[in-house]
Amino acid sequence: MPYDPAHSEKRWQEAWEKAGSFRAVRDERPKYYVLEMFPYPSGRIHMGHVRNYTMGDVVARYKRAQGFSVLHPMGWDAFGMPAENAAMEQGGHPRDWTYGNIATMRDQLKPLGLSIDWSREFATCDDDYVAQQQALFLDFLDAGLIYRKNAVVNWDPVDMTVLANEQVIDGKGWRSNAPVERRELTQWFFRISNYSEELLEALETLKGWPEKVRLMQANWIGRSRGLQFRFDTVNAPDGFDRIEVYTTRPDTLMGASFVALSPDHPLAKALEAGDARLDAFAAEARKIGTSEEALEKAEKVGIDTGIRVRHPLDPNWELPVWIANFVLMDYGTGAIFGSPAHDQRDHDFARRYGLPIRATFGKPGMTEAEADAFVADEPYVPLKSETVTYVRGFSGKRDQTGEAAVDAAIQHAATQGYGEGVTKFRLRDWGISRQRYWGCPIPVVHCESCGTVPEAKQNLPVLLPRDVSFDVPGNPLDRHPTWRQATCPKCGGQARRETDTMDTFVDSSWYYARFTAPHAATPTLREDADYWMNVDQYIGGIEHAILHLLYSRFFARAMVKTGHLPETAKEPFDALFTQGMVTHEIYVDRPKGAPVFGTGLAADQELAESKPYRPTYYLPEEVERRENGVFLRATGEQLDVIPSAKMSKSKKNVVDPVNIVQSFGADTARWFMLSDSPPERDVEWTAAGAEAAAKFLSRVHRLAEDKGAGDREDADLMRAAHRAIDEVTRAIEGFAFNKAVAKLYELANAVSKSSASGEPRRAVLRIMAALMGPMVPHLAEDVWALAGGEGLLVDAPWPKADPALLVSNEVTLPIQINGKRRGEITVPADMAQAEVEQAVLADETVQRFLNGQPPRKLIVVPGRIVNVVA
RNA sequence: GCGGGCGUGGCGGAAUGGUAGACGCAUGGGACUUAAACUCCCUGGGGCUGAAGCCCGUGCGGGUUCGAGUCCCGCCGCCCGCACCA
């Protein structure tokens, strides 16, 4: 019977279902919790999902075979803006859209044959999850982890709504195209900054995390040691006698040439009120929006306020105070001093406005004049660990490192009393207020007599009203006729419900904990959390390296503090793996010579500007590849091919997993997603690759059916099988699935070539089935059954390699002469080094190169290589 | 702009500082077939060469080392994140 994935995949999935194979149970076995980042229910699954969940499934099935009790759950990150956007654009309700998408995607996911415990499934928009999240919120509030303060948002004056950063394009609202305004609102914050130090220090303990992610988080938290000090003002309005400044380079104080304020600095605001010129500047600066990226990319501009401050080291020295668009109110004190000689941005700013550029230090040995000349055109920014010569120093040695100079400057300020050393963190508190409908309501009421009052726990959940519409601008919760009316839990009087909902990052910050007891009446159950936490292996995209993972680390600590998780779970993810994207070429129709939008490939910029052109993109299934290019099937028209990019609907370079599963089977999709590309790198989906995967799988099926006559042994094949056990096991342990695949190709090739038959051959096939099981579980069950395996493969233990079959008694050493490979020598594996050296020197090629001379050096790396230096 | 990462044949990629190109795809040749498809075997970085062999080759330019794809310095290109996308 030929390989028939459609039939056998269904059969085995039913068998696993019937046996309850993937139900996670607490028992005597050691536990293993593997989790892939749960999906947003956007509408359909895509290849990225297939890749992500296949990787997790390999780990889950492998650990299961290793004898672990495995928890491998699935859920839905279901709140968020796309549901509201859909409601606005197509009508309907966000709830219906979301649950409809979940149903579709669940149906698409199940045929992949993932070893998921579906009984634990939930969506973050479920009433139950909302209830438990609100309970957590109240506990956090009680524990002093939540507070309110003012913060700026992007306000769209036409749509009357707050915009997300991605909805602000060139300072304008994405729908209305109206210039955005920065508006201050009172919002809810989580005190993540309480944990700055701890979140930073604990990164050291996360041995199972990629170094790059730990580095990114460390930089994001951004601990810095600097000087906080005051400039006395000369002619400022009342109440602004001084300006607080924080700097990490106090050693450059003698090179200061200006002070710059954020447009949101209190002094800046006070000045703007009475000065049309400053007001206009600030208004312009605010149009950039609130995103740090936009601020940093914008041209650095400023305006002189006319105010002056005295230099702390010289009361006769006055510096101008500017308002500058690049100074952030959220970081430090909202005011900086500029030291143009040693900072690129300050340098640009000083040159633009003709401010002085005075070197504080120069290269070792430079004089003051030389150092000044050196920084006139370009700033001098050496590493802090480098020794430089201070030409305008005021503390410490003349020649010292930046680090030493900073310490000396702080010391100087503390002694003289004009400032103090301060450790600051870049990490800001986490603003969770969203002025939107489709999110978890913040369970708080505003009472006229009692103020802001948390909702009583017995009144939870506070659910969203269902009768809302999205046809008018603004937040539906704000304009709902009755939903806002509430009773104050404290005094029983009339109160107004909070209409802000929570950031969806809150939902995803504890779902991993909820999976341990998904139906409990409290956020977690102690026994289940104790047993299942932590997540042993977490898998997801690198794009979550900072925010999601940092918020989750904070949340776990907050849950420990409020008694919802054991102390041992404060770092919830023991190991993390970040996988790459699935990409595909892009097919686009365009006039010859015209550039392509948004690809960076514009060949002819002039044409791009003179003839704007909207390209039409085509799906991979709409095109046909011929020898001389790619053509549209329907019309025969030639199309352009743009190199691979992340699959996206707008570029139409998407391959629907549903089609692939229908035509090739789930195992082919899984196998291809694991082949070739290393998991952490992007993988390009190609039709040829998918076909190759399908061909290989049917070849394996044929190998299993071809039994051969008699019972012929083949020692070489058995050795190959045991080598495969060793190599595949190590590859899976090391998350190198592409290498595991390569080793299985080698084993299949060995089986093909072998003359083994009968039971000796079947024994090898059973090993192959077991090794392939985590990757292509359905085919592996077929092979297992054909090769006489007992019961379901999914219940079989992982094979063990026999060490005796892994060693060989001879070893071939390459011989290098002066670093170039010139030959090789085969010697017994246990030959003494001196004997190896003798043998090498006796080698014909070596003698030819040595030409009778003794070697200058002879390096023997045992078991690896020999290098003769002539 | 700032922070992080990546770059190896025609293509995806392999290589504890130790034989660069495992394994797969494409290509070319052959077998099977009336023919094709399927399948199987061989070939498979570039150059010189009949062959043995030699030279070049891991984005670019330097450096460390007996030995560098791997480590260090400086560039170029692409990707991810930048706090209200998820």
Kindly describe this structure:
The structure is a single chain. The longest helix is centred in the first third of the chain and has 19 residues, at 47-65. The protein has 870 residues and is α+β, with helices and mostly antiparallel strands. Helix content is 35%, strand content 21%. A hairpin with an 8-residue loop joins strand 8 and strand 9 (242-247). It is built from 28 helices and 36 strands. Helix 2 (47-65) packs across helix 21, helix 23 (715-733) packs antiparallel against helix 24 and helix 23 (715-733) packs parallel to helix 25. Strands 8, 9, 10, 11, 12, 13 and 17 form a seven-stranded mixed sheet that branches. It is globular and about 105 Å long. Among the domains are: 29-125 and 506-579, HUPs (Rossmann fold, 3-Layer(aba) Sandwich); 223-425, Alpha-Beta Complex (Isoleucyl-tRNA Synthetase, domain 2), CATH 3.90.740.10; 693-805, Isoleucyl-tRNA Synthetase, Domain 1; 810-869, Roll (Ubiquitin-like (UB roll)), CATH 3.10.20. The model is unreliable at 592-612 (pLDDT under 50).
Global outline: globular
Write the CATH fold name of one domain.
Isoleucyl-tRNA Synthetase, domain 2
According to DSSP, the number of beta strands is 36
- Average pLDDT over all residues: 89
Under CATH at level 1, the class of one domain stands as: Alpha Beta
Pick out the low-confidence regions.
592-612
Task: Give the helix tally.
Answer: 28
Structural class: alpha+beta
Catalytic activity: tRNA(Leu) + L-leucine + ATP = L-leucyl-tRNA(Leu) + AMP + diphosphate
Protein name: Leucine--tRNA ligase
EC number: 6.1.1.4
Subcellular location: Cytoplasm
